[in-house]
Amino acid sequence: MAFKVGFIGFGGMISGYHLGTICRDDVPFEAVAAFDIDPNRRAAAVEKGLIAYDTLEDFLSAGGYDLVVVGTANNYHCEMACRAMEAGFNVMVEKPAARNTVELEKMIETSEKTGKLFTVHQNRRWDPDFLKIRQAIEDGVIGKPYMIESRIHSPNGNGDMYGWRAMNDHGGGMLLDWGVHMLDQVLYMIDEPIKTVSANVFSLWSEEVDDYAKVIITFRSGLAAQVEVVTYSPIAEARWNVYGDRGAMTMQEMGAPAIHVRRIKEDRFAKHQADAFEDYKVVMREHRRHFIDEFEEFDTDKTPGGGWHSLYQNLGGVLAGTEELIVKPAQVLRCMKVIEAAFKSSREGVTVQF
Ligand SMILES: NC(=O)c1ccc[n+]([C@@H]2O[C@H](COP(=O)([O-])OP(=O)(O)OC[C@H]3O[C@@H](n4cnc5c(N)ncnc54)[C@H](O)[C@@H]3O)[C@@H](O)[C@H]2O)c1
Questions:
Q1: CATH superfamily of 3-121
Q2: Both ends of the chain: CA-CA distance in Å?
Q3: Which residue of 21, 42, 82, 265 has the fewest CB atoms within a 10 Å radius of its CB?
Q4: How much distance in Å is there from the Cα of 41 to the middle of ligand 1?
Q5: Which uninterrupted H or E stretch holds 194?
Q6: Does 125-259+298-305+337-348 match 3-121 at the fold level?
Q7: 122 lines ligand 1 (CB under 6 A)
Q8: Mean pLDDT per 10-residue segment, the chain (354 residues)
């Protein structure tokens, strides 16, 4: 059985990615209708075989949706999602879920009040690079991690802020655009209490919104994570660097086939521990050799399969009552709180205590 989907907003992401994914044989959804304020986008929806509505009221009262997907500019997510849930429909909104925690809490409250499902299209939880890094951490490849660095450094302006993305009141800016993906990945991976958030968020090219952000999160356990998103940098740093008490690993690019790992072998580590009290200088020399000699590639064949369509497959399972929702509202709210703390930290020059 295919669950019926209605779209609010039929722009680039919905008409390209979402519609294409819903048409896959292994995704249990079918697209039936769309509402967009732009007549050209409504015509595009009709061309794809959907019923297009001129007004939100007509779209909602026509009904028959198992899921409404909201893919408008960010400032309309809250209103559209709440109206759709109040009309009796389950809702998934595009990321960022909202512009701030006030809007997001309203959406979560509406979901609780109406009993309708509310989730967010955090599709990058299924990025292969993220899944490989997460698996390697879980497998203890570098021991206990103490610093996780996640970066997007674009040498060619990828991620330029344009159109509504360059407008503050539309929820534009890099931290809400790419930053929300990267922070969601890190926070999904590290389900630990957060201690502090500090950040530097500014604009290099954009007049109204940020196009550079560096956010550092410390956790109560002592682990730290850094997320950096750079719209323009002629030198690109690695997508991931992770440091642990038994080694370190790096993944150069998002599409890199493998993770490069350097670690201390267990027997050497034990010897190092035993020698540590005997001769400090010998131990330090040995210690350095441990790192220099040993290179390994993480066996990425073990990594669970990626693919953004897995999110829709999970939603299908949730609607069928056979699976637990993966992108949970509480996780999205935790991430939005970190984003708000990052803006505050940068604006006021403070470290925000969580
Ligand atoms: N998850 C991802 O990887 C990913 C990638 C790109 C975009 N997005 C998100 O998808 C959303 C849309 O981005 P996009 O690139 O498709 O933008 P877009 O500008 O191409 O599309 C937005 C569409 O919404 C319509 N719209 C605007 N206001 C509306 C309203 N009040 N009522 C009905 N329709 C309205 C516009 O006419 C347009 O067709 C954003 O939230 C964005 O952050 C997510």
A1: NAD(P)-binding Rossmann-like Domain (3.40.50.720)
A2: 45
A3: 265
A4: 11
A5: strand 194-202
A6: no
A7: no
A8: 95 97 95 98 98 98 98 98 98 98 98 98 94 91 95 73 92 96 98 98 91 97 96 87 93 84 69 57 57 56 72 97 97 98 98 96
Alpha-carbon separation of residue 298 from 128, 132, 157, 188, 192 (angstroms)? 14, 9, 31, 21, 25
184 in contact with ligand 1, CB cutoff 6 A: no
Tell me the Cα Rg of the chain. Answer: 23
Distance 162 CA to ligand 1 centre (A): 13
Distance 32 CA to ligand 1 centre (A): 18
Q: Percentage helix, strand, coil, to 5, in the chain?
A: 45, 25, 35
CA distance 242 to 226: 10
- DSSP 8-state code for residue 21: H
Q: Whose CA is nearest to atom 40 of ligand 1?
A: 73
**Which residue from 352, 327, 331, 338 is spatially nearest to 124, judged by alpha carbons?**
327
Those residues whose C-beta lies under 8 Å from the C-beta of residue 141, and which sit 6 or more positions away, are: 244, 247, 249, 259, 261, 263, 298
Q: Confirm or reject: Cβ of 38 under 6 Å from ligand 1.
A: yes
Sheet containing 67-70: order of strands: 51-53, 29-35, 3-8, 67-70, 91-94, 118-121
Query: Could you tell me which CATH number the domain at 125-259+298-305+337-348 has?
Result: 3.30.360.10
> What token pair was written down for 248?
């370190």
Which residue's entry shows tokens 């009709």? 46
Q: Which of 94, 121, 124 for mutating ligand 1's site (highest number of atoms within 8 Å of CB)? A: 94
Domain map (residue ranges) of the chain: 3-121, 125-259+298-305+337-348
